[in-house]
Write a structure and sequence with these properties.
EFHC1/EFHC2/EFHB; EF-hand domain-containing protein 1; 23% helix; flat; cilium; alpha+beta; 4 domains; repeat; calcium ion binding
Length: 640
């Protein structure tokens, strides 16, 4: 282990040694940041990480030094001789602070100036803290000048404090007796005195100048001798000769702007311009003939005439450098007159001949300015979100307050209360779903479909309303342009997909057969063929047909639920009071059964809707072998 060879040596003058084993000579960081500002911090270690040599004495030694009186060692100290007293009026005699300042004075009675800048000198006397304000005298100014405020102590506030030289600085406002003075600069003595007293002076400012005084320093306007141009000769030569131009003002870029037509007349006799507005019938504008009265039009103004009140006073020849002439009006070029840009697109034959003879221009062609209307923007609807019908969702894009889609009133009146009913089964691989039967109701007035499932007792399925009235979209059709199921899509053997469920039409009621026969042009040959097969099956003898139906659907459960459903749908039927007596007349043995032919004969005489899908399902469930029908359960459907 290598030890420090100079460790322990006394650190005395002449006895200090350099540590030859030291290799680190870095200094500690003294720059830091606090709240985003750079600050200086004291070093914690010395060069190379050594310990700083401070507070080397112990606490006992420090206490001894604090309590030690130097009088015992060195004796009583000698007092310094007292300085000679000099009063303030002697020490600061003839020492004056001088500031250059100005104040603004309103001039309400003059039309040439609205305010006046007055430059002053502010003197501060250090011997008695008094001040005075003096304005340098200007010869023939007409203003009382000289000493504005005599020498005195000036009050600073309402308490009674007076201004002190500590309150004075460059670039500040000083209020004295209601007038505000702006201190802009000071002399060299004042600057050195304030800096010696620790006051940081603001940078000097430029002295404000009086605008009226500066205006008087400008050279006198020189008058130009009028030319020897004979205006009377121009009047006699070009009398009644007028150039006519056709122009437009296109203001369509601004809000509610439009393109308006004008006629510009240029009178050669005195070089004046007149602009007339072209009115159309029923244009909705006031019939003012002139947009601009006949006058000479300035083209280039002098620089000092930019702020000239042109709306109040007429522009004289002294404010104009160049006027509009006939050579400035050219067909096919824009022209700016009084801030409005006109485009000249045509002129009359006299104007064309004048330009050809005077300026050597060929025949000026007419420029077409008729704008073609842009093609109508096709209204695109946003994508369908899946809520409600597409027609209902589209109403939100047509008007701010959505309204119900318009209905075909003629179709509603013609097809009112016309319903097409079909018997269907569910196409499903599940065995329990194969025996389920559904009744489709298609409403011709609204093209809506409702599905009802007759309840079957002990089937595990509640039955009832399977689908409320709604329009059903065909599969594989675009969402934004849906195609709904129509009457031509429903026939025996057709497959109908309703919201993911596939149904097969098994049978129809008599009204559907009559409707399809009367509207055969709406149906396909396949649909008409299915109806013919249906009619041929009805010609089969009753026992064979009933046995076939019983074989297809042997389940007779749910009779009570079906009767309750029929009572709800046919509660207003007129034959419900005497239907039981009619069956009892033919059932002399009171067995509760009647023949099939007698049954349909009684129903036909009492206007019982046997072609209804629910009634047909009830007749099927009440039919027994040998063509007998249990009319007791059938009559219950028409009673309370």
């Amino acid at each position: 282990m290598v030890t420090n060879p100079v460790h322990g040596l006394p650190f005395l003058p002449g006895s200090s040694f350099t540590d030859s084993t030291k290799t680190a000579f870095h200094r500690s960081q003294t720059l830091g940041y606090r709240n985003g500002y750079a600050v200086i911090r004291h070093p914690t270690v010395g060069i190379g990480g050594d310990r700083l040599q401070y507070n080397q004495l112990s606490q006992a030694e420090l206490d001894e030094l604090a309590n030690k009186a130097p009088v015992l060692t060195y004796g009583q100290p000698r007092k310094a001789p007292t300085s000679e007293f000099i009063p303030a009026h002697v020490a600061f005699d003839k020492k004056v602070l001088k500031f250059n300042a100005y104040f603004q004075e309103d001039v309400p009675t003059s039309t040439e100036e609205h305010y006046r800048i007055r430059q002053v000198n502010i003197y501060y006397y250090l011997e008695d803290d008094s001040m005075c304000v003096i304005e340098p005298v200007v010869e023939n100014s007409g203003i009382p000048q000289g000493k504005l405020i005599k020498r005195q102590q000036l009050t600073k506030n309402d308490v009674g404090d007076h201004y002190h030289w500590k309150d004075l600085n460059r670039g500040i406002n000083l209020t004295i007796y209601g007038k505000t003075f702006r201190l802009v600069d000071c002399d060299r003595f004042t600057q050195e005195f304030l800096e010696s007293q620790g006051i940081e002076l603001n940078p000097p400012e430029k002295m404000a100048l009086d605008p009226y005084t500066e205006l008087r320093k400008e050279p006198v306007r020189k008058y130009v001798t009028p030319s020897d141009f004979d205006q009377l000769k121009q009047f006699l030569t070009f009398d009644k000769q007028v150039l006519r131009f056709y122009a437009i003002w296109d203001d369509t870029d601004s809000m509610f702007g439009e393109c308006r037509h004008y006629i510009i007349h240029y009178y050669l006799m005195d070089d004046t311009v007149e602009i007339r507005e072209v009115h159309e019938r029923n244009d909705g504008r006031d019939p003012f003939p002139l947009l601009m009265n006949r006058q000479r039009m300035p083209k280039v103004l002098v620089e000092n005439a930019k702020n000239f009140p042109q709306c109040v006073l007429e522009i004289s020849d002294q404010e104009v450098l160049e006027w509009y002439t006939a050579k400035d009006f050219i067909v096919g070029k824009p022209l700016t007159i009084l801030g409005r840009t006109f485009f000249i697109y045509d002129c009359d034959p006299f104007t064309r001949q004048y330009y050809k003879e005077k300026f050597g221009m060929p025949d000026l062609p007419r420029i077409g300015v008729t704008k073609q209307e842009p093609p109508p923007v096709k209204q695109e609807l946003p994508p369908y979100n899946g809520y409600g019908l597409v027609e209902d969702s589209a109403q939100n894009c047509f008007v701010l307050i959505p309204k119900a889609p318009k209905k075909d009133v003629i179709k509603l009146l013609v097809n009112d209360n016309k319903v097409l009913r079909y018997l269907a089964k569910l196409e499903s691989p599940i065995l329990e779903d194969k025996e389920r039967r559904f009744i489709f109701s298609y409403f011709l007035a609204t093209d809506m479909i409702s599905i009802f499932e007759p309840p079957v007792r002990n089937s595990g399925i509640l039955g009832g309303k399977f689908l409320g009235r709604t329009k059903v979209v065909k599969p594989f059709c675009p969402v934004d342009n849906p195609i709904y199921y129509g009457p031509s899509d429903f026939y025996i053997g057709a497959v109908v997909e309703v919201f993911g469920h596939r149904f097969i039409i098994l049978d129809t009621d008599e009204y559907v057969i009559k409707y399809m026969q009367s509207n055969a042009d709406q149906y396909s040959p396949e649909a008409l063929a299915s109806i013919q097969n249906r009619v041929q099956k009805t010609d089969v003898p009753a026992p064979e047909l009933e046995n076939k139906q019983a074989t297809e659907n042997p389940s007779v459960q749910g009779l009570e639920t079906l009767i309750e459903t029929i009572q709800m749908h046919l509660k207003d039927h007129s034959c419900k009071d005497n239907i039981h007596e009619a069956f009892q007349i033919y059932d002399k043995e009171a067995s509760g059964y009647v023949d099939r032919e007698v049954f349909f004969k009684i129903c036909d005489s009492l206007n019982v809707p046997v072609d209804d899908s629910l009634i047909k399902e009830l007749i099927r469930m009440c039919t027994h072998g040998e063509g007998k029908i249990n009319y007791y359960n059938f009559v219950r459907a028409f009673s309370n």
